[in-house]
Description:
Order of helices and strands: EHEHEHEHEHHEHHHE
CATH topology: Rossmann fold
Strand content: 15-25%
Shape: globular
Number of domains: 1
Helix content: 40-55%
Low-confidence stretches: none
Radius of gyration: 17 Å
Structural class: alpha/beta
Amino acid sequence: xxxxxxxxxxxxxxxxxxxxxxxxxxxxxxxxxxxxxxxxxxxxxxxxxxxxxxxxxxxxxxxxxxxxxxxxxxxxxxxxxxxxxxxxxxxxxxxxxxxxxxxxxxxxxxxxxxxxxxxxxxxxxxxxxxxxxxxxxxxxxxxxxxxxxxxxxxxxxxxxxxxxxxxxxxxxxxxxxxxxxxxxxxxxxxxxxxxxxxxxxxxxxxxxxxxxxxxxxxxxxxxxxxxxxxxxxxxxxxxxxxxxxxxxxxxxxxxxx
Length: 257
């Protein structure tokens, strides 16, 4: 059973890994014995997280703005110097924007749609040689995209570009199943519900916690323990025959009306 869920010595990149769900996932991977790289725009936060996670295992943080193709290519070039292959790519970096229908700005659409859909696609494209170098039929390489329950059900907030982009990411994952399977690469999506992260902090501070949790059948925010089990499963041999799946980790939101 230990080997079935083992990711020891796997080389993993988690984008947006310095905060929130990305940090939760990166932390559990480092503690499980993987070689973890994280990418974040915040250089100071990168240094803090690298120091924190290095206390548990291997962690290297790279600062970069993944909304720019040139930065994606720079980050990949930096990792290629350090690693011959990549076993698991976790596309977690994302953005959100809230505004009413009448006031929603173009920049709120372009920023969110670009980072949430375009960036994962080009990360997959550019990392393909490293993922192929690791892949085999017995032990596929993995891509784990972090979507959202808002890409499955109608959201409770006016986050139009976020919801549309996450639905787009879910579908993008499915369109990539066959071309990636040819190279022994699995691709799956985790669709989290509301979690106790920086993204949710304004809702809590604004007194909206009860409004959020009332939409969750389990009536609470997700915590680190709720996401890391699925993240370990999708990265481990236990999920070798699973690709193209979207797995809600949302306290029942997507299964209720």
